[in-house]
Design a protein that fits this description.
By secondary structure, this protein is mostly helical. It has ten helices and no strands. Helix 1 runs antiparallel to helix 2, helix 4 runs parallel beside helix 6 and helix 7 runs antiparallel to helix 8.
């Protein structure tokens, strides 16, 4: 398990135009690597940046099989994409984070909270969206963070919490 050549071939199939091929690649990755395989996680995570929505969705699904819940490598790889210039990639990262993070994790909360104060509004917006998937209902830290975002200079960030 964990052969880089096999992982490369299977993860490349996540980009295939045929949905059945993409689904087969997800299953193959799940069966051919040990859960938590760093290389496989990076290969799947890199597809979160793909231009095709279906490829990004396949990458999220693959991550749910190859990364253990709370796997720091997977969480870090997904969080990295919250800073991406493309909105579609950031949205995929928000969805992916919900699949790999353990709700209430202090480390993840600290990183996302830091991103919610980022200088780029689109990164603040993505971090704000991510809060919902990383905290437990009623988490006081999230309530305080939401209050701070209600004071954000950009309406798109404020509106997310006001809704």
């Amino acid at each position: 398990k964990g052969n880089h050549l096999v992982i490369d071939q299977e993860s490349a199939c996540l980009e295939h135009e045929d949905p059945d091929t993409r689904h087969a690649a997800i299953r193959a990755l799940a069966q051919s690597v040990e859960q938590g395989d760093e290389y496989a996680i990076e290969m799947a995570s890199s597809r979160l940046e793909h231009e095709d929505l279906e490829v990004r969705r396949s990458a999220v699904k693959a991550l749910t099989f190859i990364a253990a819940l709370g796997d720091e490598n997977a969480v870090d790889a997904v969080i990295l994409r919250l800073r991406h210039p493309a909105a579609e990639v950031r949205d995929s990262a928000v969805k992916g984070l919900a699949k790999v993070v353990i709700r209430g994790d202090d480390r993840t909360f600290a990183v996302v909270q830091g991103l919610s104060e980022h200088q780029r509004v689109e990164v603040r917006e993505a971090a704000t969206k991510a809060f919902g998937s990383i905290v437990e209902m009623g988490d006081e830290r999230a309530i305080l963070a939401a209050g701070a975002r209600l004071e954000d200079s950009e309406a798109v960030v404020r509106l997310f919490f006001a809704a």
